[in-house]
């Protein structure tokens, strides 16, 4: 399942809830309107039924007839949808609108004067809303019992309900759009504190600020407090680790000095081979200690700073030139003086020094060092004209303990990679024709405002 943002999920859920609620409300309002229309129709039919009963009279020949029919002209229009009917003394009286049809009244017994409401079928395969009353006529009209009914086709009621729903839909659409937009606006402002938390976490990670702070709404404040507490705990743990690494490094200094003193004593006694072996062991131990101190700085997030690449590269080359490997090489430095990286000078020296030292050991005659700023990154290239690396092993040399020959200590490229990654950079290795190019990518230092 693809991940959706919290804002989008809430917006979609809110929009769906609004649409469902308005659909249900429309159905309920339409049903309510239909019930209201039917009650109005029943009230009108009741009045007309009263008029039908009140209009009964006898002719000169004594037959019963509707002498004063209701005034609604639809009673005189055939199949108009509005009808009246009277059953008396076995005779049937009906409106002209019924033409030759008869209302199919059910055979029920009605108390005198009571009204029954029926839904009856009509001749057009529809239905009729029918009001029926059984009345005993006064003695002047013969005291007979008559059964009178008035009916109205329900097609008009259905049409009124459909018209109401058609008129209601556009307003509901406008209301839905307004509510959805209002919900999105509410989500935008309501979730802004969470977006602010993300920005401050990024700022803490990049070193622009130390903590998230406590200026958040009370719903988000517990999260910010817990994140700050986690940062405090991590910093305390890293500080303890740095102190332990520093204590370990300082603890090695005295034995290393003793070993170097012993090597000097052996050299004075013409035991040069043994002195050289002890010096190599002491140098390896010193390099391990220095690199572990570098790792402790990386763990503590203290790599932020600003360093100019050109003087650092020149200083490293001046040292490597004094070594047997470096003295026999031609060194070319093409680094602009204004190229700076967001890294402490000591860490840049550590990361770049390893690359230059490796190049000096494997180059045949030439090592080229160049640098250029590309957008927000600085790329420092160290190119030698040596045999290069096996393609399937290039990535292995970034890992701890891997080396191209037995002369390395297997930590150099791993240290350079860790330093670069600690500030958002990377290390790239690429075979050339001939030689090997190692590119150290580091974030460019911010230019100072004038």
UniProtKB/TrEMBL annotation:
SUPFAM superfamilies: ATPase domain of HSP90 chaperone/DNA topoisomerase II/histidine kinase (SSF55874), Homodimeric domain of signal transducing histidine kinase (SSF47384). The chain crosses the membrane at residues 168-191. Pfam families: HATPase_c. Its main location: membrane. Residues 247-446 form the Histidine kinase domain. It comes from the Bacteria. Its EC number is 2.7.13.3. It is found in: Membrane. CDD domains: HisKA (cd00082). One of its GO terms (molecular function) is kinase activity. Keywords: Kinase, Membrane, Phosphoprotein, Transferase, Transmembrane, Transmembrane helix. It catalyses: ATP + protein L-histidine = ADP + protein N-phospho-L-histidine. The keyword Plastid does not apply. This is histidine kinase.
